[in-house]
Amino acid sequence: MIVGTNACGKSTLLRGLARLLAPTQGSVYLGDEQISALRSKDVARVLGLLPQSPVAPEGITVADLVGRGRYPHQGMFRRWTPEDDAAVARALQVTDTVELASRSVDELSGGQRQRVWIAMALAQRTPIMLLDEPTTFLDIAHQVEVLDLLADLNKVDGTTVVIVMHDLNLAARYGDHLIAMKSGDIAREGAPADILTAELVEDVFGLPSQIIPDPVSGTPMVVPIGRHRTGRAAEPATRS
Hints:
three-stranded mixed beta sheet, cell membrane
C-alpha cells in the first residue's frame, strides 16, 4: 500500500513502475530484466495497471471494455478463446457487474464505472497488479468487497498487488507493507503495525491523531484529532 497527501508522488511512482514514465535515475526491473527493454505486450502479460480516472472509448459496452483486458494474451489475429470467456465472466461476477455487461459505460454512475475498470484489470490475469485509488467513487460496501477480492488474489493466487490508497485505516487493515510518501520521497516503509504512528501521521499528513487498535482486525487505526472533539454542539460565541 502506498499512502501520502495529494501530489506527493504516489501516482508518479506507480506510473514509473508500470513503464509509463522513465525514471530520472536508476532502473525498474521486471524479474531479471529491465522493464524498459521489454515489449509492451510482454509487460502487459505480467503487469496490469489500473490508473487514476481512466477514460473509456465513447459508446463501448461494459462487456467489450472488460474484454479488452484479454488483449495481451491474444495472438496476432486476436482469436477469442474459452479461456478469454472464462476470465471475463469471472471478472464480471466478482465485481458485481454481470447485470451491466450489455450497457454502455457512458451510462454508468461513477461507482459502477470504477467496478467495471477493476473488472477489466482482473480479466487481464497478471501476476502483478498496480492500482491507483481503486476504491474511488465506491460506497463502503463495495470498497470492502474490492479490497477483500484483491487480498484473496494475493493470498490465494500469489498475485502481487500494489495499491495507492487515501484511506489510511483501510490501507493498514489490508496492506502487508506500507509505503508513506512525502514530497516525492519515501518517508517511511514497513509493516503497518511497525510504522503507522501518531508521529508519522503528523509528519506526512500534518494531522494530529491517536492510533488505536482496529476493533475488527487489530491493525493500527488512525483517529484524527480535530477542533470538534466531542459529540456536543459547539456553544455560540458570546458578545462582549
